[in-house]
Amino acid sequence: MVLYGLIAATTVISYIGFRQNGGRIEHWRHAPLWRQALFGSAPARLPALAAAAAYVWMSVATPAPLARSQTPLSAAALTSTSQPIAVTEFGDFECPGCRHAGLELEALARGHPGRLSVNFVNYPLCHDCNPDVPYGKHKHACLAAKIGIVMKARGKFGVFSQRLFAETLPLDETRIYQIVSELGENAADVRLAAASAETAAALRKDIEFGNRTGVQATPTLVIGGKVVSGGGAAVAQLRAALDTGTGFADVLLPALLPGSMKIGAGPAVASRGTGTTPVPGPSADLFNNPYYSCVRNYYVATTGNDANDGSAPHPWLTIQHADGAGGGRTAGDCVNVAPGTYAAGVQPTHGGNLASATGYVVYRCQTLDGCKITATGGFADPAFTFNTAGSGPNYFIIDGFELAARSEQVYGVGVMAADINNPGSATVLTMHHLWVQNCIIHGYGQAGINPGGTDYQYYIHNTIYDNARVTCDAQGSGIGIVVPKAFPVAPTNDDKTNPNPRIGTFVSGSDFFHNVIEWNVVYNNALTSCGTVGNPYDTDGNNIILDTFNTWNGNSVTYPHPSLVALNVVYNAGGGGVHIFSSNYVTVANNTCYNNYLDPANQGSVRGCIDSTQSFGDTYINNIAVAMCRRTPPVLITLHRTLYGTPRFSAAHWPAIRPTLSATTLLTWSARTGAAIATAR
Question: I need a surface site. Which of 230, 386, 498, 616 has the fewest CB within 10 A?
Fold first, then answer.
């Protein structure tokens, strides 16, 4: 496997800092590791590779309440004197480093009044509530996090967190509830609230946001919209920025800031993409200020009835009914879907007629990502499936949905465009002018977004993960544009330069980008049920792929227009991070890519995190690609006589293996042999 990035000097410098600061860090896979590809069931997931990196730590200061920021800031904002710098700490109440991080940040806040705000998000390192942690670690971390959520609802999270961080570790349950009583709350009432389903759901939300942000260790800090594990060097740079206005330069990847808890009194406020500085993933700014304009509004709700007229007081029940009711949707129509869970999606037959603000048909959730469609996708059970042979529907926008397949099914796709009579054809035209924005798409057996035979398509500000696992004959990816076709459509000015400044121009030389994939977070898309090391026929399971734009792979006509893949964060794919296969005139710019090609059954010989294969006319600009390399050779040991040397190690073997390993051993796959191996940390 060819691995790029992860400069050796960075590792050496980080390791020196790690040693000088006493080697203190709380990492749920033990330092030095990143969050790895998680191919198994949640309780039994395993890392695929070890990362050669080390972390630095920070010193101790005295606690003090801090202000709360609602807006994630860019690195440039760190030199501004007009607004506070937003810092989010992902932490665990039994993590000593989290205590140090909070105290250090509080000291900075006291020394720079009004310039720093700190948020706290729970990320307990215990398998009891955080299934991505493969074993129990911090016995009372989950309980402490849940009680913190209850205390936050009662306006006492700030003082509670300070008291808890002042305790001697490990925490004691009796002492935690004693602190609750000392703060004037009824311990029995808090105990009941902490055990409720609502509190468990709130904690899961924190953990899920931490996973999206890329949390690998506690503490993880998000400073000015940038993610940093550990914190010593980052806090030092933050201090320099506050003291001298030099700015924060320790940047690895953009952050997705979740709703979080204020250290101090007051409510939590969601802050994902709410500022003017865009970040990858769903954007509240774009959602609240869309390009399109609704001429007529129709409504769908879980409490509706398809016999209704679709008005706000009398909504329809199903999204499918909204497509054809009253003669069908036309340009300027918006279908507004109320928050809730919908078992079925839609196979639209009606669309718009022009690339303009009022020329599209729009399906929009009334609350950003508050509408969950659980259909398994594709032709069999559509989420959003366009079955067409070139007649449309065209001019279609999907905005702000969560597409969450209830199960992984073969040929399941979240957003799909194809001709059911010629699926996978290299000659069929399907549709043009399709937008998917501000969506979360996960759990689909073939792909998250997989259009074929399309033109004028825009996939922006989405989060797409855990797709493509079970379809072996028509392998898919997180986002894949396959065999696009140039439609004979006269472009409008909006096609070239969108009037919404949050989208902007697509002009590229004398042409413009017809296919755009930008501002997405795409991760953990992989084939897990197909090839083996002995029969490595996996070719896909990429995070992003542009597939067969030229004639090399059976396409009859080369696609003539430029395409753009930009400003995405991609990681932990079975295949490529950004894979340009047999495709031409593609610009790949400003993407952050790390830790891909994790599938040991992938037959690819070119394994760049961002790569171009059998393509021409492509441009690569200002991308960051980081490989996860092992610092020391693996130490092979006998784990279990019936498992070592099996064709492909399975996460299902974890319960039998884990007890045989010492605390200083990391279990991984060997990508070369397919055997389970143990690596001494």
Answer: 616
Would you state the structure tokens that stand for residue 482, as one six-digit string?
């396959």
- Number of neighbours of residue 93 by Cβ within 10 angstroms: 27
* Helix, strand, coil % over all residues of the chain, rounded to 5: 20, 25, 55
Classify residue 646 as exposed, middle or buried by CB count within 10 Å of its CB (0-12, 13-18, 19+). middle
Rounded to whole angstroms, the Cα distance separating 368 from 336 reads: 12
Residue 502 CA: distances (Å) to CA of 225, 276, 277, 437: 18, 9, 10, 12
Query: How many CB atoms are located within 10 Å of the residue 532 CB?
Result: 14
Helix 141-153 to helix 187-194 angle (10° resolution) is 110
272/518 Cα distance (integer angstroms): 17
For helices 232-244 and 8-20, angle between their N-to-C axes, nearest 10 degrees: 90
Q: Cβ distance 574 to 536 under 8 Å?
A: no
What pLDDT digit, counting tens, does each position of 216-250 carry? Answer: 778 888 876 677 766 656 666 677 667 665 443 33
Give the three-state DSSP class for 232. helix
Task: Give the contacts of 414 (CB within 8 A, at least 6 positions apart).
Answer: 377, 383, 384, 403, 405, 441, 442, 444, 447, 448, 449, 464, 467
- For residues 266 and 157, what is the distance between their CA atoms, to the nearest angstrom? 9
What angle (nearest 5°) sits at the alpha carbon of residue 198, between those of residues 196 and 200? 75
**Quick count: other Cβ atoms within 10 Å of Cβ 132?**
20
Label the pairing between strands 220-223 and 479-482: unpaired
User: Contact 3/48 with Cβ under 8 angstroms?
Assistant: no
And the tokens for 583? 């495709």
Whether this prediction's pTM lies above 0.70 is answered by no
CA angle 477, 478, 484 (to 5 degrees): 70
Question: Which residues are within 8 A (CB) of 602 and not within 5 positions of it... i.e. 6 or more apart?
Answer: 527, 531, 536, 538, 539, 541, 574, 575
521, two tokens: 């977070």
Helix (H) or strand (E) holding 373: strand 371-373
The domains found in the chain, sorted by start residue, are 8-262 (3.40.30.10), 284-626 (2.160.20), 632-681 (no CATH)
**Omega before 219 cis (within 30°)?**
yes
Query: Can you read off the two tokens belonging to residue 412?
Result: 């399941």
Q: What crossing angle do the helices spanning 96-111 and 232-244 adopt, rounded to 10°?
A: 0
DSSP, residue by residue, 164-216: HHTSPSSP-HHHHHHHHHHTT--HHHHHHHHTSHHHHHHHHHHHHHHHHHT--
- pLDDT tens, position by position, 248-279: 333 222 232 233 333 322 222 222 333 456 88
Are the CB atoms for 342 and 318 separated by under 8 Å? yes
Lowest mean pLDDT among 229-233, 283-287, 409-413, 643-647: 643-647
pLDDT digits (tens, 9 = 90+) for 664-678: 333 343 333 333 333
Give me the count of residues in the chain.
681
Q: What gap in Å lies between CA 576 and CA 465, rounded to an integer? A: 14
Q: What is the Cα–Cα distance from 264 to 266, expressed in whole angstroms?
A: 7
Rounded CA-CA distance 92/152 in Å is 16
d(CA 144, CA 139): 10
